[in-house]
Description:
Layout: E1 2-3, E2 6-7, H1 8-23, E3 29-36, E4 39-49, E5 52-55, E6 62-63, H2 68-81, E7 102-104, E8 114-116, H3 123-127, H4 144-151, H5 167-174, H6 191-204, H7 208-220, E9 240-243, E10 250-254, E11 275-276, H8 278-289, E12 293-294, E13 297-298, H9 302-308, H10 315-320, E14 331-333, E15 338-340, E16 353-357, E17 361-366, E18 371-377, H11 387-398
Antiparallel strand pairs: 1-2, 3-4, 3-18, 4-5, 6-11, 7-8, 9-10, 12-13, 14-15, 15-16, 16-17, 17-18
Amino acid sequence: MSTGGWSRARLGRMHDVMARHVEEGRVPGLVTLLCRRDEVRADVMGHQALGGGGPMRRDTLFRITSMTKPVTAVAAMLLVEECRLRLDEPVDRWLPELANRRVLKRLAASLEDTVPASRPITVRDLLTFQMGFGLVMPPSGSLPIEKAINDLQLSAGPPKPATPLAPDEWMRRLGTLPLMHQPGERWMYNTGSHVLGVLIARASGQPLEAFFRERIFEPLGMKDTGFTVPAEKLERLATSYLPNGTTGALELHDGVQDSQWSRPPAFPDGAAGLVSTADDYLAFARMLLGNGKLGSVRLLSRPSVEAMTTDQLTPEQKVASGLVPGAWGSFGWGFGVSIVTWRDGVAAVPGRYGWDGGYGTAWGNDPEEEMISILMTQRGGYPALSPVYQDFWTLAYQAIDD
Length: 402
C-alpha cells in the first residue's frame, strides 16, 4: 500500500535500518524527515547524548555546519535581486581588503613569492568558491600559507574552535595574505562563504544574523535557527561528537551548557555557523523547491533559484580542483549547493541539489521527484564514508512507490 508516492512498508524498512544504526552505537540518535509532494514523513529515535540523556526530539537543535552555506547563498541572492550586489562586479567596493590581490606562484611557495592577480574577485567567485582561496585538499599542514592561516586565527577548517576575531579584523588579516590561485581558476572549499557573510553584512548595513533573521528566518517561520542557542533552548541542543581516528569511538566535541553555540560568536560564520532543526530546515528547503516561494511568501524569483542550482563549474575547473578523489565525476557546484550531474546510484538523480554538514547532517532537494530529504545526527564525519548517510539516501529513494 502506498500514500503520497511513498510505500508504507518501505518507509518501515527505513525506520528499521536507521534504528539499527542507533542501537549499534553508530549515532546516539537521529531525526529523518522526508517530504514528497508536500506530504511529510518524520522519524525520531535515540537520544540527544550518549549514555541516555534526554530522548531525541523532532525539535532537537543540531549544529548544521556546512548546511549554512546554502542559507548564505540565498541571502546574497536577495541582495543581487535588489541590485545592491551584482554577480560579476568586483567586491572591492564593499571589501577593500581584497583589492589589488597578489597570488602565490605555486601553492607551496613562500608568502612573498607572488604575482599580481589577473582580475578582481567578484560576487560570483564567492558564491561558486572560485575566489582563489580556501581549504587545501588534502591538507598538509606544512605549507607556508596553511601556517599563516593558523597563525592569524582565520579558522579555515571546522567551525570549532571558532575564530575569536570580529568580521572587520578577520577581513583585515585575510587581506594580508596572498591568494592561493588566480580568481576563477579553480574551486576551493569554504572561505568563499566566510567572505560572503561579511559582504552581506556590509552591503545590507546589518549584522549577518539580523539580516538572516529579518529576510529569511522570520518570513519562513524558522524560529529555532541562528548562530546562538538561547539559554531557554539549550535543553534541546544535541551534544556533538567526533569519532576517534584510530578506534572509531565517539568522543565529546561540543557539549551543551558550555557549548560554543551557547554564546554569540565574535565572527558570524556564513560557512558553518548555524544551528537549526529538521522542520526549520524543511521550511528553507521547501522555499527552494518551490522556486523561491513558500506559501504566500516569495523570497527569491524562479530564475534566481535556477541559477543557484545549476552547475557553474567548467570541466577544466573540475580537473584542477581538489576535494576528494573522484568527487567531480558525479556532481558539480552552483551557488552554495552541490548538484548531482550523473546517475551512478539509487539516490543520484541528476538535478538533485543540496549539501551536507560535517557534524552529522544532510539535505537534498530533488525537483524531478518533488522530494526533500533531511537527516540530522550529532555524529561528525565525512558523509561519503558514513554508513548512516549512505543508508539514509538509499532508504529515502527506495521508499518511492510510483
